[in-house]
Amino acid sequence: MMLKAEGIVIRSIDYGESNKIITLFTKEFGKVGVMARGAKKPKSRLASTTQLFTCGYFLFQKSTKLGTLQQAEVLTPLRMIQSDIIKTAYAAYFVELLDKCTEERKSSTAIYEFLYYSLVYLNEGIDEQVLKYIFEMKMLILLGIQPHVNGCKSCGVLDEKYSFSIKEGGFLCKRCSRIDPRTLHISEQTAKLLRVFYYIDMKRLGNVSVKQETKDELEKVISNYYEEYSGLYLKSKKFLNHLHSF
User: Where is each DNA replication/recombination mediator RecO N-terminal domain found (predicted)?
Assistant: First the structure.
């Protein structure tokens, strides 16, 4: 049985001398793996369309395990991502994180569109760090470890002046911050953005401008939260951190 899907290449592994095994995150069927025979050959019609981050239409033969890719055509060129090492590093982190957070063959149009717009905005020059924080906040939902960003985690009071407790898993108001002596002090803007990034509709994202000190606070909160609760080790994140160390 032949299936056609709109998808994005999120993983690619060489197989033998001339083949590739690629993982697609598709709009219709979720995450699926397919064999692309001959895709490593320079003159193969599948060579360019099986590159990482390719967004296109894919025709493949259905299988209980690994399907076989028959045809593919590019839907949205993402040339800036593929030619810029910084953008490539962010895109690699996005797709690896998504891969770790999703199950095989579990369809979700919402997740597909979120990935699609994340890569399109990255390609168009939207702030890479802002996109990263949004992506990370959204993936926490898929992992089932989302932080509490609606009021104080302890007493529920709604305020704008919060600290963030990794231990308690969310915002703490000034009165409740004594619960956790290691609470992270954050600005009102950081608290607001953590909540906005958690709920934002990616389709409606504009050109967001965030001060560096706010980015530093967002990075500290989100990275520490992932380290505490996710159990994930991503090579792409390590490489991204390495790039930013220069």
Answer: 1-76
